[in-house]
Amino acid sequence: xxxxxxTLPLLAFLFGIFDVAFAIFVKNTLSxxxxxxxxxxxxxxxxxxxxxxxxxKTTVINSTIGLLNSMSPQGNGANQITITYYNxxxxxxxxxxxxxxxxxxxxxxxxxxxxxWMFPLWRTNTPLQFSAASADVMEATPIGGPPVR
Length: 149
Description:
The protein has 149 residues and is an alpha+beta fold. The chain has one domain (2-137). The protein has helices at residues 2-42, 52-63, 67-71, and strands spanning 81-86, 93-94, 105-115, 128-137. The protein has a four-stranded antiparallel β-sheet, with helices on one face. Helix 1 packs antiparallel against helix 2 (52-63). The longest helix is centred in the N-terminal third of the chain and has 41 residues, at 2-42. The relative contact order is 0.20. The model has no long low-confidence stretch (mean pLDDT 89).
């Protein structure tokens, strides 16, 4: 009888640790993924058959080990990734062709991602909301111009 009374709080505590640990893991993975996307972006690389923006999104998705797709509302993580270029002097967003020239700031962010608690003891109607962002300055390209976005 005593074991049954002691086991329930112990399991609740253990499941709570699992939930919090997994939430930390998800946040760390998303932060790592957007940093990898920015690292890829500043080198002005592109994957075969893709423009630079889609190449950056693919890099971020590949770095999340499947979490980004499973956490996005439509199941497509690429819809949750935004890539914005800024003028380094005015800090205003720059759009269109040549917005990804060397010297501009690139911001890669993943937002609108949610994860429900894993165990019933923590289950609520509002899932955890996650977002991550990273920025850096674009390097000048050795090919003489920015790649196609």
